[in-house]
Design a protein that fits this description.
Helix content is about 5%, strand content about 40%. By secondary structure, the chain is mainly β. It has an eight-stranded antiparallel sheet with strand order 1-4-5-16-11-10-7-8, covered by helices on one side. Strands 6-13-12-9 form a four-stranded antiparallel sheet, with no helix packed on it. It has a two-stranded antiparallel sheet with strand order 2-3. A hairpin with a 6-residue loop joins strand 12 and strand 13. The longest helix is centred in the C-terminal third of the chain and has 9 residues. The chain starts with a strand and ends in a 41-residue tail after the last helix.
């Protein structure tokens, strides 16, 4: 468990889209509790993190030094896996927007040099960043606390300071896992680990009850390729 002393909120200028802001002097305690579980025979380290969020206008991330010399990260998307470089596309002058260094992901993000890799699988997180530092740190965003502000353009910003739903001032729970593996995300079967975290087995007792009609072992179907994901089953219309 960690207790972080952090600024309570941000102080914005009259035109917040210009990013003329700073942290206020008042501070609050941010209590973070993580439970790490390594089950017998497991290939990944499961983490349950609970945060009592008392601060506004901030972002909380998990920083994982990968130690892998990679310039790209692979992240699960919609029916595909997207490979993105550390830096976004640059303009003709070689410049880029720093805030565009974060990328979207769904149930996993993986860093690999082709020989070894480190994946973070999760059930609800959507933002990551692969940092250009010596350890190639992988940053996983747990949450952002934001103000309710409707902005059509710089001169017409609607602020609603009393509506604090976006600040997430509540108890927040997160489930993710750290999964080291050989090869890239395909060879390491990262999708399998991500699906197992999101879709744990459901258990029913089928024997030895006298009324049981099912054998102790049976299967409805099987897939012989771990990189094929079954997303739906449909009964035939004529049988």
């Amino acid at each position: 468990q960690w207790t972080l002393r952090v600024p309570a909120a941000a102080q914005y200028d009259q035109v917040p889209v210009k990013a003329d802001s700073k942290r206020i002097e008042q501070t609050v305690d941010l209590v973070i509790t993580s439970r790490l579980t390594l089950a017998r025979g497991a290939k990944r380290l499961d983490v349950q993190t609970v945060i009592e969020n008392t601060a506004q206008d901030h972002r909380v991330r998990v920083l994982l030094p990968t130690g892998i010399a990679a310039d790209n990260a692979d992240a699960a998307g919609h029916f595909n896996v997207d490979r993105r470089p550390i830096y976004p596309l640059r303009d003709k002058e070689g410049q880029f927007y720093p805030e565009m260094q974060t990328g979207p992901q769904q149930i996993f993000v993986d860093v690999s040099d082709g020989q070894r890799g480190l994946a973070v699988v999760n059930d609800s997180l959507t933002e990551y960043q692969l940092m250009d530092d010596e350890q190639r740190t992988l940053a996983l965003t747990l949450f952002r606390s934001v103000r309710n502000r409707i902005c059509t353009e710089a001169r017409s910003t609607g602020a609603f300071p009393n509506q604090k739903g976006g600040q997430l001032l509540q108890t927040l729970q997160f489930h993710y896992a750290i999964y080291p593996h050989a090869g890239d995300w395909q060879a390491g079967e990262v999708y399998t680990q991500a699906r197992e975290l999101n879709n744990p087995p459901a258990v029913w007792q089928v024997s030895p009850h006298t009324g049981s009609m099912l054998p102790a072992q049976m299967g409805m179907f099987e897939v012989n390729n771990p990189n094929i994901i079954v997303s739906a089953l449909k009964k035939a219309e004529d049988s």
